[in-house]
């Protein structure tokens, strides 16, 4: 019998490992733009396409969702992807680079699998919470909010560097960029760690782990790119984990 959940877990773990081969395979987007098929999509369309499966799963399961504290992870998940599918693409710079079709296709596969797991595993859970659980959830919510707001602020910083009619890259400063080269990625990692705390389930950890692995791999490549491009790049700035990596 076909087990979509099991297959999805394998695919997500596969992406978590494959992210570390992106430099070797020469597949990337943005400042790491490279591709094999020579087909690209406009950035706004690409972003919407590969993030929207998360919201499609929410709509699919909507009639079965009871909105209570057990479903709080779903609310956080949908809040993030409402920003990613609706708000973020509309605010992309006109100078944003196109996205290779293979990147879009692979991202659609990931978000289809992960969106299904995150919504379905929190759909029918009926946990009885103790005081420690409420404390964990509260801390998780605060961490999620901090991570999401930091992610958005760092995205705004990057957007502000893309001035009209200018394709020149600049060193980002402010917020988490003072600590790491990919402040927007660090914000998202923090965000999904908070989500995991609120979730308290294996599915929440799976998403946090995959985010940590995929974004860390890309952040390390970005850090090397910045250091090679700018002689005056801040020497104390790390790639993704402040003061460590």
From TrEMBL:
Which Gene Ontology molecular-function terms are recorded?
Answer: oxidoreductase activity, acting on the CH-CH group of donors
User: Per the record, a Pfam family?
Assistant: Steroid_dh
| Origin species | Paramecium pentaurelia
Instruction: Return the GO cellular component terms, semicolon-separated.
Output: membrane
According to the lineage, what is the superkingdom?
Eukaryota
Homology family: Belongs to the steroid 5-alpha reductase family.
Keywords (alphabetical) are:
Membrane, Transmembrane, Transmembrane helix
This protein is called what? 3-oxo-5-alpha-steroid 4-dehydrogenase C-terminal domain-containing protein
Q: Name one GO biological process term.
A: lipid metabolic process
